[in-house]
Design a protein that fits this description.
homodimer; 207 residues; mainly alpha; 2 domains; 7 helices; 3 strands; 55% helix; DNA-binding; Metal_resp_DNA-bind_regulator (chains A, B); WH-like_DNA-bd_sf (chains A, B); coiled coil (chains A, B); Tscrpt_reg_PadR_N (chains A, B)
Chain lengths: 207, 207
Amino acid sequence: MSRRSGVLEFAVLGLLRESPMHGYELRKRLNTSLGVFRAFSYGTLYPCLKTLVAQGWLTEETAPDDPLAAPLAGRRAKIVYRLTSAGKEHFEDLLAQSGPDAWEDEQFGVRFAFFGHTERDVRMRVLEGRRSRLEERLERMRASLARTRERLDDYTLELQRHGMESVEREVRWLNELIETERAGRGRAKGRPADQGRDDTDPTDTTT
Amino acid sequence: MSRRSGVLEFAVLGLLRESPMHGYELRKRLNTSLGVFRAFSYGTLYPCLKTLVAQGWLTEETAPDDPLAAPLAGRRAKIVYRLTSAGKEHFEDLLAQSGPDAWEDEQFGVRFAFFGHTERDVRMRVLEGRRSRLEERLERMRASLARTRERLDDYTLELQRHGMESVEREVRWLNELIETERAGRGRAKGRPADQGRDDTDPTDTTT
DNA sequence: TTCGTCATGTAATGGGTTACATGATTAC
DNA sequence: GTAATCATGTAACCCATTACATGACGAA
């Protein structure tokens, strides 16, 4: 009945904010533009769209046989979903939230992806919340490791070490982002954490 | 009815292989010894244990009131689960599998955690399978990024860059592990990928 | 005309959590 | 005696996938 996913709802509203789309295209965007995340199946997406329409946040616009009615993709478009003003408002509300939900693993990615539409103080709170969440996790891992280190074999140990390093690395990343935001270079232009990297050649990254 | 989780089943069998335990302790172990992974709730664990008993892989041993019957933890032990020989056999079968399932995100972690009980050629196949899986993913990310780079804002771009770097980092980690295995230092002693790190003092974490 | 992609959906199932219910044991 | 932790379980729900069903369009 409800089908309230959180991440999916947020991502759909955010993507439709920019331009109306039909379900099939929406799903592709979830894999590419926002593509670092999981790809939702149609069995998830379409029912979700239905409920968003029922909530009054989207409208369905059917473009049945008229080829002139679908100039967007150049091809047939069956059901185009458009964000209503109520939906826009709701999305703004979601964007303004900076509570614990935004720090969780599943939510944080989408939240970050729409930072371009997010107020700066909210961005700061989300980043800092995320960081302290990860630092707590790190401390728990360290404590647990200290207690059980002797009883673990090499592979288990290596796995834990690598896991902790991954978290530590994300903390460092967040630190850079927070610093950039603090310096005021994080609005919309001037890519955050720019250190002369080249996306096509990511050598010498760690070590 | 079935409640066949894959990861949980594998982890439970593997943990019980070392010593019999009751459910509560089993769950703690899943968070600590194997703790890099998700923590399963009791609502998942107990039904799972029931089905494993029904399969004949575990036996329930109730130690009702006798304090002498529970020398393991020094305290009351209600239902102790013990691996049967059939269960042991089944676990060995699972350990020997090196198919695509073992390369997926959810399975790989547990598989790696039990590498100490895994044959060397199986370890190699799993590691290499995992690596090529990640390299495919990386290529898809690169292709998608090349197609959509111009249309993306700074934050989305930064998110993708960080995501790709994470995957690249894991590939490098796998490369080290594979090299170590190949050199023959990966059996049980001689910790893999040892580069003079010290687990107890992971300073230089932040900046 | 057949194949690949576009496009939309539904029913069954899977895998897991939350909230709840219960009660024993230990420590204070 | 009361709070925390140990210990076991169940029912209701949640989120999402899989498999299936349907069909239109474009290109070979």
